[in-house]
Amino acid sequence: MHNKTMMVDNQVAIIGGRNIADEYFGLSGGGNFRDMELLVGGPVARKSSQVFDAC
């Protein structure tokens, strides 16, 4: 896993991430994947920032 977090002023976070490859856009002849993100705000965003800083 290589999860990603984009934090904005410790108020809002986008957790998850996008990968760029044919397999993530439904273009692979073999298997395909789907990425998901979660938009969070308030205490959850601040906690996400704390967890990131602790690593």
TrEMBL record:
Annotated PLD phosphodiesterase domain residues: 1-24
Span of the signal peptide: none
Superkingdom to which the source organism belongs: Bacteria
SUPFAM superfamilies: Phospholipase D/nuclease
Record GO terms (molecular function): catalytic activity
Gene3D superfamilies to which the protein is assigned, alphabetical: Endonuclease Chain A
GO biological process: cardiolipin biosynthetic process
PANTHER family: CARDIOLIPIN SYNTHASE (PTHR21248), CARDIOLIPIN SYNTHASE C (PTHR21248:SF12)
Official protein name in the record: PLD phosphodiesterase domain-containing protein
